[in-house]
Amino acid sequence: MRAERTSALIVALVAAVLVMIVVLMACSASSQPGGSGGTSGVGSTGGASRAAASASKADADAAARLASASENEPVTASSSLGGSASASDDSANDASDVASDDAQAAAGDGAGQAGAGSSDDAGAALSPAAPLVAEALGDGYAYDDLCADVAALAQAYPQWVTLDSLGQTADGRKLHHLVIGNAQAANKVLVHGGIHAREYFTTQLIMKQAAVFLAHAAAGDDYQGTPYASMLEESAIHLVPSVNPDGWVLSQQGADALARDEIRSRVAEIAAMDGASPDASYFSQWKANANGVDLNRNFDALWSDYAGSDHPSSERYKGSAPASEPEARALVSLTEQYGFSRTISYHSHGSVIYWYFGQDGALYDDTLQFAQAISATTGYTLDADYENLDPAGYKDWALQTCGIPSLTIEIGRGSSPVSADQYATIWEENQHVWETLLSRP
Ligand SMILES: [Zn+2]
Known about the structure:
Blueprint: H1 2-31, H2 51-54, H3 60-69, H4 77-81, H5 85-95, H6 101-106, H7 143-156, E1 161-168, E2 174-181, E3 187-193, H8 201-219, E4 222-223, E5 226-227, H9 228-234, E6 235-240, H10 245-253, H11 261-273, H12 280-283, H13 326-338, E7 342-348, E8 352-354, H14 361-378, E9 381-383, H15 394-400, E10 406-411, H16 423-430, H17 433-438
Parallel strand pairs: 3-6, 3-7, 7-10, 8-9
Antiparallel strand pairs: 1-2, 2-6, 4-5, 8-10
Helix pairs in contact: 1-5, 1-7, 7-8, 8-9, 8-16
Bound molecules: zinc ion (ZN).
């Protein structure tokens, strides 16, 4: 009996180690566009030592979706716990084709050590409160950092975080989708950022919001008398931290950072049409996706009436049809699937909140009330002058077509990308936006 028990223990330990390896590798598969697809379901493998207690919160629907989206990865929390043969096999298979530096990336090496949480656990990379790269608010937050942070959040808080993917971009990057809180809750909200390439600080802000909110919940804190944990129990926060990762990489790192030759050729052609040399200063101002479409002019809200520009890469180039772009389609599908009660689209810059698209009645009142609450916590002013703004944005579509109280929050001042010396101020202004979003008047 003792020998049996010892060998069972060894099997369990080996399985746990393999599960950790899978988590550490989760990001890298998606950041190698030519590599294997189907990397969703990552979160379900995380936190092997803690996941059992939280299995009751696992979302059956989300698990089913993950199961259908995932090719060969374990999809339920319990499957990673039992040290089952299938989990171990998947881990071993994945381990064979991923390089060791991926683990370093997933551990959030380097940049971020200034987070809200601290930990006395051994092995900081796997501790519940290990700070995300995003939390440091350092300059240069990159797509690979996002991948690492997403995996780290799911690993640290398996009871509250479920990972999903909305598909891949033209240049092969994953559209991360996180469900935070109780996926079964009636109240579902959406927060997304980074739909405009050069506005990538919004992605970093959203990830810090997630990390800090979850750390508060784990610590048993409350906000103005409401426990964070109960906010998570009563709501599901759907996050798409970067709707346009191709554009982000292009704006931040230039065309050489793109993965596919045809995409590099495409953006070079666009630069040539602009009479510009395809250098870093040109691409730093990029706002579109890799096809040159301004994604926030690609939604079916006065799209037909909107002339815009016929020139790809223009910030007014609306694309060939409503939702012609996969990134826009992903948000449309997500919204139609979940029926959000509220949405927030993070943009930069202006320190202003757009909330009006001609709606009336209860939707007018609800949206105004929502906007006023967000204005009170951020200090940003409200702007209702929609007739002088370009239409066909996500918020416009969510209001007009779906009837969802929806806001565009423009962070920062001056120009985009916002300068790094504004990061701390922007964080101060936006640190309680989630609490406000989840509060029901
Ligand atoms: Zn924008």
